[in-house]
Amino acid sequence: MTTVDDILKEGITEVIVTTVSKDGVPNAAPMGIVRKGNMYFIRMYSDTATFRNVSDTGFLAANFISDPRVYVISAFQDLPPGYFRFEENRVPPRLKDAAGWIIFKCQVKDVVSLEPVSVKVARCTLPAFNRAFAAVIEATIVGTRLRFYRGSEGIDKIRECEALVRKCGSPEDIEAIKKLKQILEIF
Ligand SMILES: Cc1cc2nc3c(=O)[nH]c(=O)nc-3n(C[C@H](O)[C@H](O)[C@H](O)COP(=O)(O)O)c2cc1C
Questions:
Q1: pTM: predicted TM-score of the whole model, two decimal places
Q2: Is domain 4-121 annotated with CATH 2.40.70.10?
Q3: Do the beta carbons of residue 176 and residue 70 sit within 8 Å?
Q4: Which of 22, 73, 102, 107 falls 20 to 30 Å from 171 in CA-CA distance?
């Protein structure tokens, strides 16, 4: 049986975190789960909806999904309701198309500590690696932190990622980077 330790290796794994507000509204955002030894946590900005939902409900779902467009959209906009699936009451929703997900109980301290509750592997694929997927993720994370870069450094980095995506990427990767540039108004 696949365990959380098999899935989340030491370091930071980028996932789509899904949560639900106390009023029942689902939310998704990319976040990095840090594993140190057998401890799992997220360094979460307190001004995010994800942080608010986790503080209110105490749970999140970490979704593993290979569609780069979901990373771009959920980083900046609300994912339409059709992307989510509620399995049970009182449990955060997951993404409908996720290849697998882990439900975590959360404790909000200086970081958000994660205790695994359940793991589901819905689909397995061979680890064929395409640099474009990583480039979309990198460009998206730079996009969420543009205010911390000096001058055009952030935008330049996104353009470098874009060149790689155009060289190696699938149509979905190219659509994702175009969407990112459109959201950030990079022309
Ligand atoms: C790949 C990736 C990883 C990210 N990791 C984190 C993280 O670990 N913690 C965090 O607070 N924000 C992280 N972000 C930024 C959030 O996704 C972003 O602030 C988002 O708008 C939060 O959405 P929300 O308000 O719906 O929760 C990450 C963004 C990307 C693209």
A1: 0.97
A2: no
A3: no
A4: 102
